[in-house]
Design brief:
heterodimer, A: mainly alpha, 3-stranded antiparallel beta sheet, 15 helices, 3 strands, 66% helix, 2% strand, globular, B: Immunoglobulin-like, 2 domains, 7-stranded mixed beta sheet, 5-stranded mixed beta sheet, 2 helices
């Protein structure tokens, strides 16, 4: 049995860290940031090539770089960081020892090996198949092998998380129910297990096909199951970054959820319905009925969308309540005006919330309408959408959490505080502009994953409208701004973690606690957990923001139906 | 706080805030509305996919396409001598997608309806009609018949918008509407 039972209490936050869990969090976060660096460097190539005036890389290099950019960002950076979030949400928030740290390390090294192998395959140049790797277009076997090993490693991490929940419950490290943030992380973990199982079901046969042991892979079967992996992996992110929003609301404002019931039910709806979204990628495909498409693309009557709309109200609502309690209760929006906009932990989280909802959420639902998808499918509108969800939503939420973790987990001061103050704005607003311009260009038909929209040297010519060219150029400029914001994040985090000023606590020592137990917490004053029963609205400002969101949503929804109704009749 | 355990055992019995209840109701109604828009459009809208797809193979599909080209060819274009076909209204039109071209070129009549079949000979391709911006996935082995009615005259481009290898961006063709 492991003898390592050391815990330490963070002097500023009172959080309790289990030493092995702490090391795992640090390493997962660090490797995640390395993947972000690789993906970010590759982003420069993508941006400067799709900006037609610059048109930097050759076609084969461009497709190779785009493949590496997609996989490092969508898969490696985010999932490494999510492992750190899972360990934080279980071991730290529940004040429990981490279950089987050795298995967690095995999972971590499998993930590292998988990421290295996959990147090696792409670097070879014979695996420029994009993140999707649609069979029968084939990559080198190492490409699939890398993804499979990475997925197995992540699966081990998920089970360590679940094991830690069991340990914490058995050893009574907490009383009552698990915190909302842990509940959200559990949601992410359950979705992750579904996702990884789907990945195994499709990637293992595809790997066997690539080495010649399986005669063929049906393209429609591949695409259907692949997206149960590919899209669901983005749903892990949704559950994870919403948990991070709740966590930051609690960390910065001491906010309580408006009601536990509503927020937890919303997470529960994610577990039930969010994985149906693989249909979003199959709406313009043959061989599937409209019944299947409508049920799945709408997550069974949009029940997962309902859940996201609920979180969209309850996260800022919780902040509003906490702020009003502190006395910022004038008018509708004093609570928001007086929020700490210079604190990157908050500003990043809030930009993430607004960008995810207004840009990513609305566009995602609209392109997921069975018929409207016909005027959006595979245009650059799609990358526009997911740069709003995965980058402004997930990545920015994780970045803002990092500013909290640097002092608490790494025990260093955040370096370059002036730059850190601006970083979320540079990155978040730059990336939001990328999303908007790409969606605009996609509405005009510009295809995604395309080296040359001028079609120079092709048998036929087609000229996109000038507005499309302009938007691609503006999107690229915004992309460079966002890359600068990403670079600032990397500079701040890497410098802080390795060279930053150590936070010394007088008399600091790890506490060797009784087996399996964290030092007992100081008694918490009994707190009310509900704000109900009040006659009026307790968070009117948030409610107004939610109505603005709904009106924007509805207007844009009908504009797209109108646009669809003007194209050639199809049946 | 959201990061600390809930100490009351019956947290699911705590009442909702009023704006939470109102917002959940509004959002749910909106979700139902959006859901029923899709079946509604199948009945009353004009832009739908019928999902008339059959499994077949490249050879059988190519035979049908060759027969059609032989019957309705009106001329050839470009130095690659790509045939231009002018099929009659309501007929089956076979469009072949392959690395890295669309074959043949179609000449259609505005206001008439055609049953356009889409299939790939090799990898996935994307039928993207510009500037109409109609986008349909093209699979190998699935003959997908889409009934289309061009509404205005002119020269339209078909570009490939599913990444299909290093010359993906050169895969472009025409539909003429007279």
């Amino acid at each position: 049995m492991s003898t390592n039972r050391n815990f330490r209490t963070c002097p500023s936050t009172g959080l309790v860290f289990h030493e092995p869990a702490e090391k795992l969090m640090i390493w997962n976060a660090v490797v995640g940031v390395v993947c972000l660096l690789i993906g970010g460097l590759l982003a420069i190539g993508v941006v400067l090539t799709r900006w037609q005036t610059v048109h930097w890389l050759s076609p084969d290099r461009f497709y190779q770089v785009l493949t590496g950019h997609g996989i490092n960002m969508l898969v490696f950076w985010i999932i490494f960081f999510e492992m750190a979030v899972l360990y934080f949400a279980s071991s730290t928030l529940l004040r429990s020892r981490l279950a089987t740290p050795k298995m967690a390390w095995a999972g971590f090294w499998l993930m590292v090996l998988g990421a290295l192998l996959n990147n090696y395959a792409v670097l070879r140049g014979d695996s420029s198949v994009m993140f999707t790797a649609y069979a029968p277009m084939g990559a080198h076997p190492i490409f699939y092998l890398g993804l499979i090993l990475f997925a197995v490693g992540a699966l081990i991490g998920c089970f360590v998380f679940l094991g830690t929940l069991v340990v914490a419950k058995a050893e009574r490290t907490y009383q009552g129910s698990i915190p909302l943030v842990t509940f959200g992380a559990l949601t992410a973990c359950i979705i992750a297990i579904f996702t990884i199982a789907s990945g195994a079901i499709i990637l293992i046969p595809t790997f066997l096909w690539s080495v010649g042991l399986v005669p063929q892979i049906d393209s429609l079967m591949y695409k259907t199951i692949f997206w149960a992996f590919g899209h669901s992996s983005q749903q892990i992110n949704v559950a994870a970054h919403i948990s991070v929003w709740y966590a930051i609301a609690a960390i910065v404002f001491g906010a309580k959820p408006m009601s536990e019931k509503v927020s937890r039910t919303a997470f529960f709806l994610y577990i039930l319905f969010l994985q149906l979204a693989s249909a979003h990628h199959l709406l313009a495909d043959p061989g599937l009925t409209s019944y299947w498409k409508i049920f799945n693309t709408s997550y069974a009557m949009y029940l997962a969308v309902l859940a996201s709309m609920v979180h969209g109200l309850t996260v800022p609502g919780a902040i509003e309540l906490a702020q009003r309690k502190k006395g910022y209760s004038n008018g509708l929006f004093e609570w928001l005006r007086k929020a700490p906009w210079g604190n990157p932990v908050f500003s990043g989280m809030f930009i993430s919330l607004v960008g995810f909802g207004f840009l990513g959420g609305i566009s995602g639902v609209i392109m997921g309408v069975e018929q409207i998808n016909l005027i959006i499918h595979n245009t650059i509108y799609v990358p526009g959408h997911f740069h709003a969800t995965v980058v402004v939503g997930t990545t920015l939420a994780f970045m803002s959490l990092t500013y909290f973790l640097i002092p608490v987990l790494f025990r260093r001061e955040v370096a370059f505080p002036g730059l850190a103050k601006w970083q979320p704005y540079l990155f978040g607003l730059g990336m939001s502009a990328v999303a908007v311009f790409l969606m605009g260009a996609g509405t005009l038909g510009v295809p995604r994953r395309h080296w040359d929209i001028s079609f120079a040297g092709s048998a036929f010519a087609y000229e996109f409208p000038g507005a499309a060219w302009l938007m691609m150029a503006l999107g690229s400029i915004a992309g460079l701004i966002a890359i600068a914001g990403g670079g600032a994040y990397l500079l701040i985090t890497v410098y802080s973690v390795f060279l930053g000023k150590r936070i010394e606590t007088p008399g600091f020592a790890y506490v060797r606690a009784r087996d399996g137990m964290a030092p007992s917490a100081a008694p918490v004053a009994a707190a009310i957990t509900s704000h109900g029963q009040s006659a009026g609205f307790s968070a009117p400002g948030t409610f107004v923001l939610a109505m603005v969101f709904l009106v924007t949503f509805a207007l844009y929804y009908f504009v797209n139906w109108k646009y669809l109704s003007t194209v050639w009749p199809l049946s | 706080m959201s990061i600390s355990p809930v100490t009351e055992r019956l947290w699911w019995k705590t009442p909702m805030d009023r704006e939470e209840a109102i917002w959940v109701t509004i959002a749910f109604v909106w979700c139902l509305f959006m859901f029923f828009m899709m079946p509604y459009w199948h009945v009353f809208g004009k832009q739908n996919l019928a999902h008339a797809a059959v499994k077949t193979n490249a050879e059988a599909y190519m035979n049908k396409a060759n027969a059609m080209v032989e019957k309705y060819k009106v001329r050839e274009e470009t130095d690659q001598k790509i045939p231009v076909v002018r099929p009659p209204a309501d007929s089956d039109v076979y469009l072949v997608a392959r690395l890295w071209s669309w074959w043949p070129i179609l000449e259609l009549e505005a206001g008439k309806t055609y049953k356009i079949h889409l299939m790939s000979m090799d990898w996935l391709h994307g039928f993207s009609l510009q500037p109409e911006n109609i986008n349909i996935q093209v699979h190998p082995g699935y003959d997908h018949a889409v009934t289309m009615t061009p509404t205005q005259k002119g020269s339209f481009a078909i570009i490939c918008n599913e990444y299909c290898g290093v010359n993906h961006h050169t895969m472009i063709s025409r539909i003429y509407v007279k």
